[in-house]
Amino acid sequence: MKQAIVELHNLSKIYQQGEVQVKAVDNVSLTIAKGDFAALCGPSGSGKTSILNLIGGLDTATSGQVWLEGIDLESMGNTQLAEVRKNRIGFVFQSYNLIPVMTAFENAAFVLDLQGIAKQEIQQRVMQTLAQVGLTGLEHRRPDEMSGGQQQRVAIARAIVTEPAIVLADEPTANVDSHTAESLLDLMQTLNQQQGITFLFSTHDQHVIDRARRIIQVQDGQVVSDEIRP
């Protein structure tokens, strides 16, 4: 049996919009196992990004529990959550979220620097990771000197260089063309298969859905199906 990385128990999130309560996540229980290449799928407003944000400690639940490697995130304060995000979770966003004034190397090294890793080790790990994602020779370029696909590769490098327990990718192919999307998915699939990196996507992109080995359909804040492909 595979090791559980993420466990959700009766997870709910209610947002107050004026006088109306919106149940973005409705009593979800779910386990993500080590090595999963899984996609939360559903239309806009289905709750998939809300689930991803709760797993990533970017938001807190109204009720229920989020366990990451046996740690109860819902019992933590903001400072503790920030430590977990820094050390155990990699994030890839549709808008890349790179720091504009930093080079590819500096963006990829940013979290390692926050972790207090020695400069020599940062140099080695970042250059090795940039090579893995196909960016050798581009380490000194800033985001505005790179294509959208190259920027997303920097974001993937930043997400995996810390060796996180899981990479959470929110619509990672939304801002690139279909050829670049396939190239990015090739990369993430290789990282998953060769290094065992666990990926959980939030997506409605058919490219991602076709590649995922596990499809978790979300509708009205609930998991309505969970299919594992052979």
Description of the structure:
By secondary structure, the chain is an alpha/beta fold. The protein has one domain (4-228): P-loop containing nucleotide triphosphate hydrolases (Rossmann fold, 3-Layer(aba) Sandwich). It has helices spanning 48-55, 78-88, 104-114, 119-132, 148-160, 178-195, 206-211; strands spanning 4-17, 20-33, 37-41, 63-68, 71-72, 89-93, 166-170, 199-203, 214-219, 222-228. The strands form 2 sheets. Strands 6-7-8-3-9-10 form a 6-stranded mixed β-sheet. It has a 4-stranded antiparallel β-sheet with strand order 2-1-4-5, with helices on one face. A hairpin with a 2-residue loop joins strand 4 (63-68) and strand 5. It is globular. The mean pLDDT is 95.
- Please state the structural category: alpha/beta
Q: Total number of β-strand segments?
A: 10
Q: Which regions are unreliable across 5 or more consecutive residues at pLDDT < 50? A: none
Stated plainly, the CATH topology is called: Rossmann fold
Number of structural units classed as domains = 1
* Arithmetic mean of pLDDT: 95
**Element order: H for helix, E for strand:** EEEHEEHEHHHEHEHEE
Query: Counting H and I runs of at least 4 residues, what is the number of helices?
Result: 7
Largest sheet: 6 strands, mixed
Rg calculated over all Cα atoms: 17 Å
Strand content: 25-35%
**Tertiary shape:** globular
How are the strands ordered across the major sheet? 6-7-8-3-9-10
Q: Roughly how much helix do the residues carry, as a percent range?
A: 25-40%
N-end to C-end Cα span: 16 Å
- What's the CATH architecture? 3-Layer(aba) Sandwich
Question: In CATH, what is the class?
Answer: Alpha Beta
Supply the CATH superfamily name.
Answer: P-loop containing nucleotide triphosphate hydrolases
